[in-house]
Design brief:
The protein is an alpha+beta fold. It has one domain: Glutathione S-transferase Yfyf (Class Pi), Chain A, domain 2 (Up-down Bundle). It has helices at 15-23, 33-37, 41-44, 67-78, 85-99, 102-111, 114-139, 154-169, 178-188, 191-199, and strands spanning 3-7, 29-32, 55-58, 62-65, 202-204, 211-214, 217-220. It has a 4-stranded mixed beta sheet. α1 packs across α8 (154-169), α5 (85-99) packs parallel to α8 (154-169) and α6 packs across α8. The longest helix has 26 residues, at 114-139. 33% of the residues are buried. The model has no long low-confidence stretch (mean pLDDT 98). Bound molecules: glutathione. Glutathione is lined by residues 10, 12-13, 45, 52-54, 66-67, 223.
Length: 226
């Protein structure tokens, strides 16, 4: 079975699915939209189920859109999904709650500049901190390093991605949450994740002129080939 994750030049919704696959040894290719479709996004967009990416293509045939659906599929494919129905539902709630941080956090970090970046950062601060406190309470429910046990799944990587990205807004934003700092450190200490974080394109000039450094060359974030 072949898996292709199709996305853009952004540090956003392809991160958690990739970490999930990397940690659980699921082989996949990461492909930019313009390379996969050999066309500009404006032409591709109307042909995609929900007109947005990421999309996971299975065996060159089946297309799965929506990042949470992609992660659920990967969990089942890898055989690592929680089996208890209550924990499954609790995990889904955590994943959804983490993904609710997508907007405004991801667009601000990937695209906002100057005064707009500063205004967005301050406008979302209370919302982020409130949700971080929610995540701390979730971590306290069960024993173990992560939400349910010592195995990271969708909920952990969705939460990690947003905690990680929030540090681009404010490097000190997690300091009032030692439990989240420990969680982030535990995720980053996982060997496959440490390797992924070292290899992935660096996100630079956040708030000024955000770029991803791809194979040594800085590219502006976005949906266009550069
Ligand atoms: N709910 C969707 C959101 C997907 C989404 O917002 N994708 C953005 C990039 S992060 C996109 O496709 N932007 C281009 C567009 O909307 O035309 C998910 O979780 O996958």
């Amino acid at each position: 079975m072949s898996l292709k994750l199709i996305y853009f030049k952004m540090r956003a919704l392809a991160e958690a699915p990739q970490m999930l696959m990397r940690h659980h040894n699921v082989a996949y290719d990461y492909v930019m939209s313009w390379d996969h479709f050999d066309d500009v996004w404006a032409n591709v967009k109307p042909t995609i189920a929900f007109r947005q990416l990421p999309m996971l293509e299975v065996d060159g045939t089946h297309q799965i859109c929506q990042s949470i659906a992609i992660m659920s599929y990967i969990e089942r494919y890898a055989g690592i999904a929680l089996t208890d129905p209550v924990q499954q539902a609790q995990a889904a709630a955590i994943t959804q709650s983490a993904q609710e941080l997508f907007a405004p956090l991801n667009p601000a970090v990937n695209f906002a500049v100057g005064d707009d970046f500063t205004a967005k950062r301050e406008a979302m601060r209370d919302m982020l901190v409130g949700r971080f406190a929610d995540l701390v309470r979730c971590l306290d429910v069960y024993e173990g390093r992560f939400f349910f046990d010592d195995m990271p799944r969708s909920a952990e990587f969705a939460a990690y991605h947003h905690l990680d990205l929030s540090r681009h807004l404010d490097p000190g934003i997690l300091s009032q949450f030692p439990r989240l700092e420990a969680f982030v450190a535990d995720i980053e200490a996982l060997p496959a994740i440490a390797a992924y974080l070292a290899e992935r394109p660096a996100l630079i000039d956040v708030g000024i002129a955000p770029k991803l450094v791809i194979e040594g060359a800085p590219h502006p974030t976005g949906v266009h080939k550069t």
